[in-house]
Fold this protein.
Amino acid sequence: MLDSLRALIDKHFIKLTPTEREEVIENIKAGSCPTNDFYVMTGLAAVIATLGIIIGSTVVVIGAMVVAPLLTPLLSSSLAGVRGEVTVFNKSLKEGIKGALLSIVIAIMIGWVVPEFILNTEFLMRTQPTLINLGIAFASGLAGAYAVAKRLDFTLPGIAISVSLIPPLCVAGLSIGLRIGWEYTTGALLLFLSNVIAITLAGYLVFWLVGLGPIWYWDEAKSRKRIYTSIALMLLIAIPLGWIMWTTWEERYVTTQTQEILEGQLSGIKYAEINAIYYEYSGDSLQIIAEIESPTLLSHERVAEMEYALGEKLERNVDLELKIILIETVDSEN
């Protein structure tokens, strides 16, 4: 399969000249050498991203993704892996790890001094990674590696925006600093790890296909092995991402259907409002708990009607429990 892809690339794309090939290799290798500029830009990107997440600003977070240089060591490690250059690979790996740790530490420190924080979309969207995120990271890695190999530097800012590397690190650090739960930390780190694996694999494939790999057959065989290993890792990490994606979709489906049915049943009660919906599985049954504000109590028969409607809609046994908060309305005429 890899040979067929390489033949397709060679047929439809102009090959790099030996001089261009060496220039690209040297430029990518330069990304494996840690510099003060790399850590300064990574630290500033972490500050921008963390503050953007706190205020829930998508624009600010996107700006941080452009500033962050974390894509460079990943592509450098991909090239080193394809070429079998262990020293360059280790340098790139260390630089990437140090940059990631720096981002997490900065986010933790900001989390310590934040007076209050309300969970928002910018935070939550990076704590439940799915297969879609994995696909985005892989496609972004392909684009980034191809742009570097073909020296299309004008496309790199846009590619950096599509690659979610710095935001999940900041979410992980922020959740630690705020002490709001390890499930958020592990979810964000899983997103970062899946992105790293997908981008690394994409880099392996592109650099090998465009002819930046080793010349000797034995080294090329090792490169193939690394590519297959990366594919195995990506498939392995797809398992928890697929599970998260399924549970997220199921939770959204159950909650949405329950919301619609309860709102329909409560439509005749003025001022009645649904505050929250929770559910859990108990054997073969689905136990749904809904918190409702209402000026009147609901009869057992009314609750049984809701339970039956939910069971028909969700196609399973449903045990419905309503927690009703009685409210009283007062106007100037009473």
In short: DSSP finds 13 helices and three strands in the chain. The chain has a mean pLDDT of 77. The longest helix spans residues 217-266. The CA atoms of residues 78 and 204 lie 5 Å apart.
